[in-house]
Structure to design on (406 residues):
């Protein structure tokens, strides 16, 4: 960066009128170099996370994102499956990759429309009942949407393990952004499909806000900060009426005070959302049953006549979907140490290494790894170096060294 004599004098004038700290010096020099640069949040400094303070219990987490080449499979099969008690109508809703929590409410509304079509076609000749396969966020939001629209509809959730803490959804960070899946929606037609899912999700989130129920479901408005480079998941794949265009300026951190962006999106905390959905569903008499399905023909033995497949990565074997790809990721969970640690930082480092820091209600999640094709959810000695790298990268970033991520 080359500064003129006038720019240096201007910076010096600003410094004299304020406390002479490194952060303020950096901001003054940045504004002198770019007179249009405006500090985000009006110059307020947000507290950095303490990257040395880990969550006491299970601070290291592994999750396998259920990515699908070609995008989400969300459709009603035209040919019913044979079953003991009559034909079974099968609806698929899986393959959301790293955007399952983001798309869950929207995709659930599409599923409900398919169910409504089947109800109309089946008429009153048959008693209609629904089996939802899977107890992650996709299955639970589908069951919740069905119960919301049809309070007397018979709904049963089936899963191989009913402990929602073991689901990939529960381990997720919970930012509203179509990350990890947007690249499957590159044509205009495909982007319109993704935009529809996102708008549907936004509409349900806004509706919950109007009902003053955000806190019940772990939903909170968050400002999301990034460095000042393109963020395709937001910039080109999320409609402006869902996530508005970002503000630009100097970032509101003590040492990380370079040019950046401020998006506005939501936190949807799965550690609050999922238990609440289960509680709501049980209270409304939705049944939960433990059952392992080895192939799609096993659906024929169910008593329900509408089956909704929300099995995530399990769909690879269950319905022989070779487009499913495991994307293994690492998370480090920290303690929240200060009240104003209520923001997101995403978008990676200045050298485009993946990194994100999400401040949630009670903790802070940092991540930055994608291991394609690795299905293992267990932690091994080989993962120690990855967890360490994530913490070191986050520390480097917030120490004002955004180009030193490994």
């Amino acid at each position: 960066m080359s500064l003129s004599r006038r720019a240096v004098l201007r910076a010096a004038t600003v410094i004299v009128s304020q406390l002479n700290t490194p952060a303020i010096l950096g901001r003054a020099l940045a504004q002198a170099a770019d007179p249009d640069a405006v500090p985000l949040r009006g110059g307020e400094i947000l507290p950095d996370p303490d990257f040395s303070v880990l969550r006491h219990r299970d601070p290291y987490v592994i999750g396998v994102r259920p990515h699908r080449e070609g995008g989400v499979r969300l459709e009603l099969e035209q040919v019913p499956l044979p079953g003991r008690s009559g034909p079974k109508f099968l609806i698929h809703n899986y393959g959301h990759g790293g955007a399952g929590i983001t798309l869950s409410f929207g995709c659930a509304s599409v599923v409900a429309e398919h169910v409504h079509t089947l109800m109309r076609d089946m008429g009153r000749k048959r008693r209609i009942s629904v089996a939802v396969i899977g107890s992650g966020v996709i299955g639970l939001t589908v069951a919740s949407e069905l119960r919301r629209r049809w309070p007397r509809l018979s709904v049963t959730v089936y899963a191989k393990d009913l402990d929602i803490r073991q689901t990939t959804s529960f381990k997720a960070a919970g930012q509203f952004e179509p990350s990890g899946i947007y690249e499957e929606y590159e044509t205009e037609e495909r982007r319109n499909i993704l935009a529809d899912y996102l708008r549907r999700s936004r509409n349900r989130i806004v509706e919950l806000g109007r009902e003053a129920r955000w806190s019940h479901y772990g939903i909170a408005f968050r400002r999301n900060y990034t460095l000042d480079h393109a963020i395709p998941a937001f910039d080109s794949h999320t409609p402006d009426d869902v996530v508005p265009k970002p503000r630009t300026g100097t970032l509101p951190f003590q040492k990380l005070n370079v040019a950046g962006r401020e998006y506005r999106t939501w936190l949807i905390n799965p550690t609050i959302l999922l238990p609440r959905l289960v509680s709501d569903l049980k209270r409304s008499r939705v049944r939960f049953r433990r059952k392992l399905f080895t192939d799609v023909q096993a659906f024929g033995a169910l008593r329900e006549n509408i089956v909704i497949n929300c099995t995530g990565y399990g769909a690879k074997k269950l319905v022989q979907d070779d487009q499913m790809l495991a994307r293994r990721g690492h998370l480090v969970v920290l303690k929240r140490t200060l009240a104003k640690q209520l923001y997101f930082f995403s978008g990676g480092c200045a050298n485009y290494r993946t990194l994100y820091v999400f401040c949630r209600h009670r903790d802070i999640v940092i991540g930055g790894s994608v291991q394609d094709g690795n299905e293992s959810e267990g932690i091994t000695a080989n993962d120690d170096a990855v967890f360490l790298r994530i913490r070191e990268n986050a520390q480097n970033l917030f120490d004002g060294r955004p180009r030193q991520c490994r």
